[in-house]
Fold this sequence. Notes:
The structure holds two protein chains of two kinds.
Chain A: E1 7-10, E2 12-15, H1 22-25, H2 45-48, E3 72-75, H3 87-95, E4 99-102, H4 107-115, E5 119-122, H5 125-129, E6 135-138, E7 143-144, E8 147-148, H6 153-161, H7 165-170, H8 173-186
Parallel strand pairs in A: 2-3, 3-4, 4-5
Antiparallel strand pairs in A: 1-6, 6-7, 7-8
Chain B: H1 4-11, E1 13-18, E2 21-25, E3 28-32, H2 36-45, E4 56-59, H3 79-93, E5 96-98, H4 108-114, E6 123-126, E7 140-143, H5 146-155, E8 157-161, E9 164-171, H6 180-191, E10 199-204, H7 206-209, H8 213-221, E11 230-232, H9 237-243, H10 253-259, E12 273-278, E13 285-287, E14 295-297, H11 309-315, E15 330-333, H12 341-351, E16 361-364, H13 369-377, H14 380-386, E17 390-391, E18 412-415, E19 430-433, H15 436-445
Parallel strand pairs in B: 3-4, 3-6, 4-5, 6-7, 9-10, 9-12, 10-11, 15-16, 15-18, 16-17, 18-19
Antiparallel strand pairs in B: 1-2, 2-8, 13-14
Helix pairs in contact in B: 2-3, 2-5, 6-8, 12-15
Amino acid sequence: MPEPLVRFTAVxxxxxxxxxxxxxxxxxxxIKTTGKIGLAQGLFANWRYLPGTRNPNxxxxxxxxxxxxxxVLLTGxxxxxxxxxxxxxxALAEWGIRAVVAPSFNPIFFxxxxxxxxxxxxxxxxxxxxxxNPVTLDLExxxxxxxxxxxxxxxxxxxxxxxxxxxxxxxxxxxxxxxQTADRVARPWAWLPG
Amino acid sequence: xxxxxxxxxxxxxxxxxxxxxxxxxxxxxxxxxxxxxxxLNSLATAGRSIVNPAHVFAVMDHIVDTVPxxxxxxxxxxxxAFITETRAAAHKAGIxxxxxxxxxQGITHVISPELGIVLPGLTLVAPDSHTCTxxxxxxxxxxxxxxxxxxxxxxxxxxxxxxxTMRIRVSGRLRExxxxxxxxxxxxxxxxxxxxxxxxxxxxxxxxxxxPMEARFTLCNMATEFGAFTALIAxxxxxxxxxxxxxxxxxxxxxxxxxxxxxxxxxxAHFNADIIIDGTAVxxxxxxxxxxxxxxxxxxxxPGDEAGARARAYMGLIAGQPLQGLPIDAAFIGSxxxxxxxxxxxxxxxxxxxxxxxxxxxxxxxxxMGVKRAAEAEGxxxxxxxxxxxxxxxxxxxxxxxxxxSFGPGERVVSSTNRNFESRQxxxxxxxxASPETVAASAIxxxxxxxxxxxxxxxxx
Lengths: 194, 461
């Protein structure tokens, strides 16, 4: 499970492009492992490296002095759209990103961030444009550099406590079993033999 | 009064977790080899088992080759590990696997309805964003990450933040030669790639109920490109006809059919958002940029807006350039969006007796081995190969570049797929997404072309 995330101060890297999709965050060809680790080298590969090489593209923000160790990513709207690949969140987390700040998030990417200890912080684009480094994120107060934002309580608790959602849900195992028993009677057509 | 989404969500609510989140029962889980091994192995490592293995399915579609004679070896370097590890994990977990050589192998969202795995009234999840495709049968089906797939398998539930509801009413039927793909692109272009954000979208209206089942899958498929939680279409006789007799369809069909009669939004149901689209105004569409929202009617010109500068540079286009007539290097027909039998039949009607333009690489990949057999039984494969198309085994294939086959940097591809993202089909590859008809017409013309050019039937050579 990810480390609990309560508050931290770090450098934020601005990558203010709309619709940054998960193919951009980690191209499919960079997913060389059937597991979850070793993905950071593929992070933003098409933008971060010069075409056809592994040489850093000096124009890319995460290659620029002062941003190599950024822990916060500022982006445009609809970040994480496209493929549901959780590798995008795994690669970001492994690289050291702990928060993504955007005007809006793709819903699957949002969930993948929360499950991997990355805070999805929703702020208006105009506000993101005025943020100055370093930034301080406080998940108890739900503020970024003093700007308040909203986050569903479920997601906030997961991040604050580094909770394992499966363990949390299994506390309801009795309710689930009872629901399933009743459902086998109510919807026999929905149940496959086995 | 409830919407269809409300009915499905509430019927599956096991526990209200507060704050708008509920524990929702999951009826079916589907996995593919891209993330199947990771999810299954991670579950096993944690000492957790699958609550109901009979309700979990895995298929090889993402990485498996689509060239004839394929096996576990892949053109993608290291790809076979995804196949062999998913196979081993699936066998160990006791779930149903559609393996590389299985007669029912195919793209997850093609085979699921084809086999009756998804049904009206069910919840179904898969670690794949295009799971929304399957909402077309009136199921609550949505894409998740791998960790959530583990959660669904281990607990039989997911913790879901309830989305808002949106209805998109398509008034008036699509005109002749206009397809569900054009409708999907029209909606995304009009309302943005995040136009459906935070919402479960129900497609309704005359323009939707007139669509055959396979076209409904195409429409719902691109709800994820609209940023929506998922898409839904209320099931009707067309849906029931399509599903009856499928391999995993209910044996007691009459009881199931009776249970599905209430699966529609009530007449006075309240939606958080309501959009009306004039179906008769939709025209053949093609994307010009690097987001599906950057799509226009095929006779339009490349826009000159400031926000499109990056996309124009990537796509090698200049403002004011007509889209029609742009020379292409390749044409690709396939993917969970447009690879079903009816798609291939419409392509065949265009390419029969014609030939792909010189220098254009043209590939057709059926969505499933079932689609492949049905197409071959009708002789479509010969029409395609006579016209100069490659005819492949089923799978996701070149919808995305996983390190194996690619179209090449700077190459311009017209594709019946769903994503025109930068480098999606290969580093530097320029993708224009469109209907299968437009792809077929463009392959013949050698440039982006209106399928209306080829409506006159030709006899096969």
